[in-house]
Amino acid sequence: MDCTQGVIPAGDPEVARMGTNADDPRLLGRRLAEERESRGWSKREMARRLFAADDRPYPSTETLLSYVKRWEAGKGGISRRYRTAYARVFEMDETELFGSHGTEAQAAEMTVDLLGAAWPHRDGRPADAAYVESVRQTSQALVRLDTVHGAEDLLPLALRAFREAHRKLAAGAHEPATERDLMAATGEAGEVTAWLAYDADRQAVSRQVIQEALLLSRQAGDRDMELFELTHLAMQSVHMHRPGEALRLVTGLLDAGRLTPRVAAILDIRRGRALAQLGDERAAMSALDKARATIGDGIGPRDPYWTWWVNDAEVIWHMAMARAQLGDWPGAVPLFHESAAHRTAYRRAHYNDLAHLLNAFAHVADWPETETLIPQLITLAGEIRSTRTTNLLSRTTARIINADPPSTVADLATHLHNALPAATST
Questions:
Q1: For 74-99, what is each residue's pLDDT tens digit?
Q2: pLDDT of residue 101
Q3: Nearest CA to 158 among 227, 111, 121?
């Protein structure tokens, strides 16, 4: 549960969802005012920019202006929703701007019991083989929880575990014989943490952690994990619409050779998505078709263990995304349908698939299918905390409402919009 510092104005839903954003809200208010003034913006301009950066069409700019005045005066904390908007407007990482206090630390305390004995407790002793094993078990437990619950509540715990293991390495607080194993386990923990940050739509955090993890895995000589981390970087480049960056990374790895078939297929998926963003339909679909054929052959003896999660449904979903990015929404709809139908066992992935299917229905104005799908998403929205999916649904429901659909569809879309957790992102 979020805690509050300062005065909470009665009846203010945004301020009621406050987190502890700094040790002293007055210091935070001064910091925000200084950042704003250094850019030459008035408080009204700040409110306008926050409104533009937010994913939701309310409250009004005038209401936001009153929020800005209150926050800068140190008279209230700031909800996660507007911490995200501030970070976007100032083009800063959220942690850099607000610190790592409040909801993140409390969520870690609340979630720690889910892992039980797997948690790598801090006891001051040098890390030994048992500690290394606890780091690995924590990573595995986080992956299992993510497939069911989504990343938002798990990310603070993952960051805590990764940073603790990383500190032990940096300080040399480990038995000499465990150094390489601890380095490899910490690199793997970083990869898991980076994925959770990606799904929580904390892209700056994800990018920073995956780069640290990549260095650790490389130093440990863990080539398989290093490749996994590089595919993550390529995935994130595509997600952030940096197709040139993704292509350079993927092409360099493919040209270097020495890849197992499934690793090459995953890189072809990233390549296909980047090419679709660049508008090269033929090359994009060719790369994805090639990946699908390879994945269909199953896992070979040389394939890294982490390639287990890439299956036919995963490739189909990327084919749907490519179609959507090429503007072929009618072609994307059946592919999103097919992917969702095959991933019901993985609740977080299924939820994401259904959200993208709803987005596709909205683009082709298929209101009967939209009306059928929304009730499923309303149920899942209360159970799964994948901020990446929440943000997509927030944009999609706004699109549906603004498209003037039948009243029953508009009412359902409003219900879904209101059922979503407060959206956050980089």
A1: 866 676 778 888 888 888 877 778 76
A2: 44
A3: 111
Q: Which helix (H) or strand (E) holds 46?
A: helix 43-53
Report d(CA 399, CA 376) in Å as an integer: 18
Contacts of 424 (CB under 8 A, 6+ apart): 80, 81, 83, 84, 152, 200, 201, 202, 387, 390, 391
Residues 191-242: tens digit of each pLDDT:
999 999 999 999 999 999 999 999 999 999 999 999 999 999 999 999 999 9
Alpha-carbon gap, residue 327 to 305, rounded angstroms: 35
**Residues 355, 357, 360, 366, Cα dihedral to 10°:** -110
Instruction: Please provide the DSSP assignment of 298-351 as one string.
Output: ---TTS-GGGGG--HHHHHHHHHHHHHHTT-HHHHHHHHHHHHHH-TTSHHHHH
Which is more confidently placed, 289 or 4? 289
Rounded to whole angstroms, the Cα distance separating 321 from 131 reads 41
Tell me the pLDDT band of 292, cut-offs 50, 70 and 90.
very high
3-state DSSP call for residue 404? Answer: coil
* DSSP secondary structure of 158-209: HHHHHHHHHHHHHHT-B-GGGHHHHHHHHHHHHHHHHHHHHHTT-HHHHHHH
Structure tokens at 278: 């660049």
Which helix (H) or strand (E) element contains residue 19? Answer: strand 18-19
Burial of 97 (0-12, 13-18, 19+ CB in 10 A): middle
* Res 395 pLDDT > 80: yes
- DSSP label of 24: -
pLDDT of residue 114: 44
Strand partners, 127: 174
